[in-house]
Amino acid sequence: VQLQASGGGLVQAGESLSLSCAASTSRFSTYAMNWYRQAPGKQRELVASISTGSRTNYADSVKGRFTISRDNAKNTVYLQMNSLKPEDTAVYFCNTKGTYGFRDYWGQGTQVTVSS
User: Fold this and answer.
1) How far is CA 65 from the centre of its chain?
2) CA 36/CA 69 separation, integer angstroms
3) pLDDT digit string (tens) for 64-103?
4) Three-state secondary structure along the chain?
């Protein structure tokens, strides 16, 4: 399975960005999907998750500002990021553990930079 992330860029604090991650699999609807991020010098952290039934979970740091969603017809997961802060600056990765949770697939990462 290949995951292709896109949509990163440079924005000012308070602005918005939308990330996309397209999966090359016909089993996408059976995958829970995740967005992680990794800032320089920090560990990779889970930002948001969406189940096969579209239940969502968020890190406390992004609750109320970020929204994860999925379009199974397009094999794509999205991350809408609003009210961005400088501390949101990181490389963002999409991820899935596959249908049964035994796999670990990662996208290539997309850079998000928020200036103050």
Assistant:
1) 13
2) 14
3) 999 999 999 999 999 999 999 999 999 999 999 998 989 9
4) CCEEEECCEEEECCCCEEEEEEECCCCHHHCCEEEEEECCCCCCEEEEEECCCCCEEECCCCCCCEEEEEEHHHCEEEEEECCCCHHHCEEEEEEECCCCCCCCEECCCEEEEEEC
Beta-carbon contacts of 40 under 8 Å, excluding residues fewer than 6 positions away, are: none
Instruction: Give the pLDDT confidence score for residue 101 in this predicted structure.
Output: 86
Instruction: Look at residues 99, 84, 94 and name the one whose alpha carbon lies nearest to residue 44.
Output: 94
